[in-house]
């Protein structure tokens, strides 16, 4: 077997080309998600303590971040050339570094707003573009197309962000110094994320996957209920993702535990895709998704019910272990329903999920500023996720597509 990839650079002896490509995806997740997107979560209480940033303004900055992600998702979905997708992926890596550095330049709301928007745009590179490029490379090289390792990078990224902030706090770094520290980290992550993913070869004639058997498209009932349920899931996901550190730090008995709680979220999220894939193979996609959302409801509302450290840590595990599972299960269903063009359903689902992520943090920030706490926002988020689970139970009962998907999942697991 040749020692170098036919379409990429030679791999070092200690890493096979497959693992170089998969680790490029992991590093892109740590850079674009862990640093550019989620460093804001543990740094939010620091910025609020050291600047004029209010709860409402913090919520609006988070909303703009998710608006940027939606734009990135729309641009990614509009591209059909694998070469253009690769170019945009590399651009998002650079934007992740630039937007991280931009947060440290001045304490200007409009500067921060622009940088959060750009950071959100960059995160679409790791979530959507990198996953497609990695699958393309794996399939074109006769490898099994799986993304469990790639998406584990999201959990690792959250863990890295939380631990980095905790370390820099111990070193007495202010908010600007911490953003500069993240910029240095981002620049280092850019190197393997860029260099270890080879540029794609031109697709071979007849290799578009047209030999796959056609499938019946999902019914209108399926799509409407799935879109509504995924909107609810997006609303619940974003509240804890944005405010969990600030929520914990505001409890007098829990002060100092916020970053460790966020680190636990990342630790629980890292294996979540693989775990929920195994559950789906045993019980079906819809059953797995309903279970994940039910557990997520408990994880979201626990901090509103207790200021006990054990309760908050259980919340972190339940939330971290389910939110990414929900995303991966929905994306897998999209691939099953549209094997020749999964982007069709993925795009609609991303719009539903993303719209909730724009609305939820802005509303929660305003509620927190008006009441002095996040409890109402947490209960609202938990209520939305519970509603989403109920919609999926209804969907499972009334729609043939849902039953067919569950049967396929169980069949692949046998």
Structural class: mainly alpha
Write down the Rg: 21 Å
Beta strand % = under 5%
Biggest sheet details? none
Number of H/I helices: 15
Mean pLDDT: 86
The helicity comes to over 70%
Distance between the termini: 33 Å
Structure summary, number of beta strands: 0
Give helix and strand order, one letter per element, not per position.
HHHHHHHHHHHHHHH
Global geometry: globular
The parts where pLDDT drops under 50 for at least 5 residues are 1-12, 204-214
Please explain how this structure is put together.
The chain has 414 residues and is mainly α. Helices cover 78% and strands 0% of the residues. The chain has helices at 17-35, 40-50, 55-78, 82-102, 109-140, 148-170, 175-195, 220-249, 258-269, 272-283, 285-305, 309-337, 343-371, 375-398, 400-413. It starts with 16 loop residues before the first helix and ends with a helix.
Question: What is the topology?
Answer:
Elements: H1 17-35, H2 40-50, H3 55-78, H4 82-102, H5 109-140, H6 148-170, H7 175-195, H8 220-249, H9 258-269, H10 272-283, H11 285-305, H12 309-337, H13 343-371, H14 375-398, H15 400-413
